[in-house]
Structures
1.
Amino acid sequence: MTALRIGATAALAVAICSGQAAAQVQFQNHMMPQPSQMSIDSGGLKLDSTFAVEVSGASDACLNDAIGRAVRRIEMAAGLRHAGRGVAGTTRLVVKVSRPSAPVQSLDDDESYSLSVTSSAAEIDAATDLGAMHGLETLIQLVQPGGAGYVIPAITIHDSPRFRWRGLMIDCGRHFEPVAVIKRNIDGMAAVKLNVFHWHLTEDQGFRMQSLVYPALTAKGSDGLFYTQQDAREIVAYARARGIRVVPEFEMPGHSAAWLVAYPSLSSGTHPDEIRREFGISDTAIDPTREATYVFIGRFLTEMAAIFPDAYIHIGGDETPAPEWKTNPRIRSFMRAHGIKDNEALQAYFNTRVLAIIARLHKHMIGWDEVLTPGLPKDVVVQSWRGVDSLSKGAKLGYAGVLSAPYYLDGMKPASEHYLADPLPSSSDLSAEERKRILGGEVCMWGEHIDARTIDSRIWPRTAAIAERFWSPEGVRDVDDMYRRLGAVSIELEGLGLTHLQSEDAGLRDLAGTESIDALRTVASVLEPVSFGDRFKAQHTDQLTPLDGFVDAVRPDPPTRQWFDAAVKRFLADPTGDTADRSALAAWFITLSGAVAPAQQQIAASPRLAEVSVRANQLVELTTMGQEAMQYLTDGRKATPDWKKKQSQILDEIRNPSALVRFVILTPLSDLVRAVPE
Amino acid sequence: MTALRIGATAALAVAICSGQAAAQVQFQNHMMPQPSQMSIDSGGLKLDSTFAVEVSGASDACLNDAIGRAVRRIEMAAGLRHAGRGVAGTTRLVVKVSRPSAPVQSLDDDESYSLSVTSSAAEIDAATDLGAMHGLETLIQLVQPGGAGYVIPAITIHDSPRFRWRGLMIDCGRHFEPVAVIKRNIDGMAAVKLNVFHWHLTEDQGFRMQSLVYPALTAKGSDGLFYTQQDAREIVAYARARGIRVVPEFEMPGHSAAWLVAYPSLSSGTHPDEIRREFGISDTAIDPTREATYVFIGRFLTEMAAIFPDAYIHIGGDETPAPEWKTNPRIRSFMRAHGIKDNEALQAYFNTRVLAIIARLHKHMIGWDEVLTPGLPKDVVVQSWRGVDSLSKGAKLGYAGVLSAPYYLDGMKPASEHYLADPLPSSSDLSAEERKRILGGEVCMWGEHIDARTIDSRIWPRTAAIAERFWSPEGVRDVDDMYRRLGAVSIELEGLGLTHLQSEDAGLRDLAGTESIDALRTVASVLEPVSFGDRFKAQHTDQLTPLDGFVDAVRPDPPTRQWFDAAVKRFLADPTGDTADRSALAAWFITLSGAVAPAQQQIAASPRLAEVSVRANQLVELTTMGQEAMQYLTDGRKATPDWKKKQSQILDEIRNPSALVRFVILTPLSDLVRAVPE
């Protein structure tokens, strides 16, 4: 048996014995997140028939359904024909769970599991069904070709999460996302062992959760785009069945225009006539000074508590400038009477009142950074969008916290950057006691610029890399290896129904009005959307703007970035050698430049593509730059200072905003230029 | 004003006036189905702002929702920013409808409409909301680039369908299809003016419709995969909102194993213990001789009639060998007592009894060919899977009929073949009275080899071509022009959420385990699935076999077929000329042959792809054949008889079944070979 260090890329020859034949296979480590402990043995389990599933210990419908789904996915991956349900096969899968599944998950649940695969069986041991589900997901990721078919290599894994709170937030307020979108994203979360779906249900731009007590909330505040209570119960059950908690968020007292459209009496002064179409921070706010406000919130949250069984309710609490709190005489007089000195103190008063309601419901409150005001009770959890310092400050004050700042997907950053941001780096100055208060992290998918067609490509596969950050040991941080495994998990996620890989081509076809998009696809492969901030500045969008431009089609962090970066690094290590990288780069530049003319034809024929013309022209400059730089380096020739200066000017020009997209190849290109001797 | 003949490809220069600027644009006729009458005017409506919608005459929620959806699609297509709902824009859309929307559609509804577009407004006139919806779909298909933006060319259209019954049947019995799949297919149907969704809800392999009266039907007969009554009501409402009737089918007395699993007492003798996994015709059948049978069917259909408001209920009725009717002594004795001489007569007795139940529910019966037995009342509609002769025979006997035989999608035939099959060719010998009995046609999507991931690519875009056959005048039958427009409608359908264009790449990525599938995609582009019959013979599949092989990824009738066929025809007209086709074909052969080696690498690494290796090797032979033939023809050289003989042998060999896929380029290739002088 070979013990492996975590993070090592395992590629061991493993002998698979099956009847007479024995085949050598390379163990392919495609697991994401990486388990905390594993050791590889020789041989493996040949997948050549259906599964004979044995469940020992606790067994219930929840666990059995999870096993059934996992078995089906393994059969799909391995191309096995399922001869019939209930018919025992020859591949033994043993699942041992100590305790029956709890109807409601908790932050303290034991999610650990052990997995042992031998040539005769795969066995999963776990305290809870949650651990067993994680073990099943790992098992699926272990299926690989071997011999003439598929195998699961012999392995022993002991695995448990580094953080207890591993979340994904989806903002369904600014743009509504259909139930099917939520479900497939929950499937994706389960595949990479995330365990909290934070459902951002209300925004200035829409109230998305049906209330029977206050039906106007959706009747007036949603354009008819909302989740029925039945939908919500279905999502909660769907998530529970996959080991995922659902934490609902109802934003208050700010980000609440949709509440106020429906119930103007809640307002601190003015209220909008319809839900807000513009994005950005609004001035409207719920009035914290009236008793009726708390009667309303109390009745509403009581209704919601019956639908969302999780121990936490998220009240938002961020970005509440509330200028009317400073101008409304009644509010001013209330503040004076109660010794409330400013808006921050008034919001603290509001939070305390809402917290009392939540406590009465036997639940805990979670809110964004701004809820952390003096006197806040210590059982409130603070979700930090401001950063790791804000999170640490909270921990030192005694508050549990969840980090979100480095995991904003709409920043359109590469997976590597998110991946390396640690919620609790070993360099942190927190004490052991304080460190325990860092519960974990949450990925945030804000909704300004996404709809059902584009959301998946913004979330995936980057979120899988972040999921590894939340689950695996801190030392697992080899970026190249992460990207290698991310490529595999991305395909697995597509198999679950996520559309992150399909949506780019679909968008390009829509823009070009034809199926023939080879050239356009090539141009798109080196471009990605600009960040939320850059788009927000450059394009005046609102909720009703169609999100079907070129910027919506292209994906953040396309695989080209990583490939080109690595290929250039290797080329620069031996620029005069006749290497595979040199040939590959040369061929690639030819493909790129060859695509520009046919792409420009399509761009000219489609007004919605018109703005991309500039980028396509720039691509010609960039390929020329790359080709010339490689030529200099290969020949060992010096470039003129003019040439270098010109390249630098070109790169500067190309870094300017245009068409809401940016090139992902500029850094390696400038490395190439810089490497040319002068 | 220029009057156009239907079927003519219109490409007229149209002047678009917008403020100061006037731009020349080519009218692009992308409509499918083609309208029955149209004339093109000069100028057009520039789409430069939001819509100011005026509804005159009858106005109701159904119509308003349809208009809202259409406006949104036009805005998406034209990249218009919707500044706010309720805010009147500058593009006038006038919709005039004579009568309010009927809650339930009927076969006799007036679906005609007129559409008039000028530089100042688009106006739709229709007797019913159904006609208005068709007009809106036409309007969407008219949006095209013009000037720097988008326009709707000035046009006058008077349009009405050739047939009243234009259906698509989806078999959800053999494989269940989620509600989302049904909905997006209904969207696709509406886009091409189909008006009947025939929902095949029961099969030997599954009972998919919830009954509260007989809950075991789904509890025991569906693996938990079924539509709740709420789902069904939602689908019915969704379809009605899009001008589509829903005709439910409950198969009886054959194809009924799932009924019998749940209620064995209905059986004619034996009954299965679980739903049938194998495909093909089963021997089990409902017992037509017991009164309890009709009590059961009566209660069940009464329950269904409350969910499905359509005037028709489909009882299946096909393929009932029912050997037990010949061997069960009790059934034998009943037949003797009632003078029923054989199985056919017994089924006729059964149909008469069921018809009485349906009549009591104030509905009409429809069934497959086999229901047409002597004495069948004349108000039963016969759906013909046997062919146009069977349909004509029925019409002569006085029965109304719907043609399906030439529209079986699982035959994997090219769109052109379906397109040219006419339900009522002018050559038909039917009398005027009999011709009226041909209500229309129905496309059939049987479910043996489809799942939610692959169904769309089997249905679309081919069904759009058939929809034109059902709607447009008989004389509209230019195949090249159909394919040209099919390319555009295919992109429109993808925009509605259909996955027919995305699923091939997704399947290839899944098989290859990577995003890098350029070579594999090129190989796949010349292959299509074999017919249902060939697959059924070659591969022993059942309901539980994963449908994720190479055959499931590739699409029927890929665009390569039509492109290559046309390019070869043009090349052969001038083989020695230095034409664009010669260059394009030469370049294409190089691309194809270059893809084989990298594709073979991926095939070797993925056992599920292994069988495709043979086809990839054959592709090398085919490209060599094409290149050599072109060389002979270009040089004007003679080939040796040996060369010709060898090519013929290669083609014969390649026509043999392999890997469940077949090449779509063989006919033009053999044309090339045949053209080489000897």
2.
Amino acid sequence: MENVSSEMNECIEECLRCYAMCTAAAMNHCLERGGEHVEPEHFRLMAACAEICRTAAHLMLISSPLHKEICAACASSCQNCAESCEALGDMEECVAACRSCAESCERITE
Amino acid sequence: MENVSSEMNECIEECLRCYAMCTAAAMNHCLERGGEHVEPEHFRLMAACAEICRTAAHLMLISSPLHKEICAACASSCQNCAESCEALGDMEECVAACRSCAESCERITE
Amino acid sequence: MENVSSEMNECIEECLRCYAMCTAAAMNHCLERGGEHVEPEHFRLMAACAEICRTAAHLMLISSPLHKEICAACASSCQNCAESCEALGDMEECVAACRSCAESCERITE
Amino acid sequence: MENVSSEMNECIEECLRCYAMCTAAAMNHCLERGGEHVEPEHFRLMAACAEICRTAAHLMLISSPLHKEICAACASSCQNCAESCEALGDMEECVAACRSCAESCERITE
């Protein structure tokens, strides 16, 4: 998109991909598995990660300077979510999306 | 993503792409051009299109049966936005994203 | 808010209240209770209701004519969510918020 | 809402009120006035403030510990938006909503 650096375009895509992955995984995989997949702490981490990723993408799309603070929060949210998904053992796609998004958000905040 | 048909996956991607395109175009291209680009009717069409695309994607991601009604509204919103952007003459990328999303949403609601 | 009828203002408030109620009830009460409270069909109804209420409010706030279609979908989503919550027996506040929002959305779409 | 302190409930309400005010003011008052009301910097501040308020409310509603970082960003966003609205001279309601929300967000982050 015009007016947006390639680094930021990549971060927007990573955030939207991670938002989509966390949302779909929580509301399909986790809900259908049940048990520790719907344990409040894990499920909240996924819901928070999805929301923050969605908002980080939005702030970059509107060229708001506040995206830096939100991308920093997003990077830490993605790391927490990746760790929680890794501990469950069957959420590799979500772990990968979170780690990749965290790296991209960290580069943006440098 | 698991549990989701390839047709729905494609529609989710179209909706997120159109959301991103309308948001960035409104908040960068239109705001910076000014004049008829920030005329209330045009600008509201773009903002409404962005919001409905974002929500249509979300309802598909959570596997809600209500996505059909929202995708139908999304298709008509995208058509309206495409026409308004086409009349301005310098928003081809946005026109293309809206038309492509409208077609994808129509297929989902069949 | 200026430019907005009192009927629409009331509907915006109902939608935001119902969004807040469904979100908080799903992510606190339901997750902590577990069992049938996190059964996929119930939980998805709550998540879809929250999202549609949030979007219906947004479209009214931006004065988009598309709010009518979304408010119609919102009314039906709220009815479904109210019935699912009623069957669980311990979610009276959520039932009341959904029924009140459904009525307000129906008036808007008349 | 259950599980939520009265201080947090108040902050959720302030964030939703400020989100609604900034969204409606930008998309009605500012678009219809035109001129400096749709100058990119001002309009982006309003759009960013609306989005961050909406997300801060969401994270509190889902009981995510990340709400602290987002409420801190929200407080600074509201201050910036209040100053930009104050300079325009005819947006007192928006100024008041932003200042009140900023104070509430600051108390939450202490």
